[in-house]
Amino acid sequence: MTAPQLAVASPDGFGRMYRRSFSTPPTVPSITTVIAQQPVELDGWRSYMAAKHIADHPELRNVLDNPAKMRALVRTAVDASESYTRSAAERGDRVHTFAEQLGLEALGRPNTLREARETLHEHGEEGFAASVEKWWADFGVEPIATELTVWNHTLGYAGTLDLVARINGRICLVDYKTKGTTRDGRVKMPDEKVAMQLVAGMKAEESLVDPEAGSWDPWAYGEDPLLIAVAVGETEAAAVRVNPEVRREHWLTFCHLRRVWAARVDVSAAGRTLLPLPPPPPARVATPAPAEAGAEAEAEAREQILAHTPGA
Question: What are the start and end residues of every segment in region (Disordered) (predicted)?
Fold first, then answer.
């Protein structure tokens, strides 16, 4: 996603943090940082990406009989998943920027929609722009706010909603997920964690008005908006809604993850967890004091005399 104005990276490695204005320090974690406390198993995916990198590499046929070159190719495969993730994130930023500018144009506000479209074109990603525009037209989207930063004081977190809109007369909170395409040309569906992300956004207590002045308004969009995730692909966009029956469970999970994040911060602030342990010093034989040594020698001599004295 695009970088929210009041979000900054934590210098202590605790994810992205939010501040109340440009002149204040960050104090609470972002929604996505909290959700990231939930472990995700990616070993299988990383292995697949590494294997795919080698299988698809144009030089594979030429290096099969050369162990040194083959090892070099394997080393490049190690970074394949990270490279793919970085590329996908950059593409997601471009698509989110386009969607944001589309909303600003619809609101009659200054925008860079033309530049955002040209950027997608330069990367061969025009299909994503077409998918966003078709979704807007099909659903009759009436934007209210784009990239709206929200704050929850009670639990202590903040985040930025991609879009607040009215659709068919209903207030909706919308999150865009840029996704790949299946072999049959359909866009892949969002991960279910998007439900937690949208529920946390729905639980906001304030929304940002002016980041320079640090002014905020009370949350104005109620406790029961429609929560929508839009999967944006090259061939189409597909929308899903969060089942109202599961909102409570996702909210409770988010609350637990917020406590996990706080515990990590507390552990880090407590000091070093593991300390060096040197081996103990060598054991030393105690040297008797002079008086004690004389007494011991006298007793030993007496025992020897008695041992050689008849009838003793």
Answer: 277-312
Quick one: pLDDT at residue 289? 59
Identity at 93, one-letter amino acid code: D
Both tokens of 7, joined, read: 């979000």
Give this prediction's pTM. Answer: 0.79
Q: What DSSP element (H or E) covers 230? A: strand 226-232
**Which tokens in the block code for residue 137?**
């037209």
| Of the candidates 262, 37, 22, 4, the residue with the CA atom closest to the CA atom of residue 156 | 262
Distance CA 285, CA 283 (A): 7
Residue 108, pLDDT score: 97
Q: Return the pLDDT at 285.
A: 67
State the Cα–Cα distance between residues 241 and 43, nearest whole angstrom. Answer: 30
State the CB neighbour count (10 A cutoff) for residue 179.
24
Strands (E), 123-205: 142-152, 157-167, 170-178
Biggest CA-to-CA distance, the chain: 126
Q: Does domain 26-40+91-269 correspond to CATH entry 3.90.320?
A: yes
CB neighbour list of residue 200: distance below 8 Å, 6 or more residues apart: 31, 34, 35, 152, 157, 159, 251, 254
Alpha-carbon gap, residue 120 to 240, rounded angstroms: 25
Q: Which helix (H) or strand (E) holds 200?
A: helix 193-202
Give the single-character DSSP code of 245.
Answer: G
By three-state DSSP, how is residue 191 classified? coil
The parts of the chain modelled with pLDDT lower than 50 are: 1, 312
170-178/226-232 β-pairing: parallel
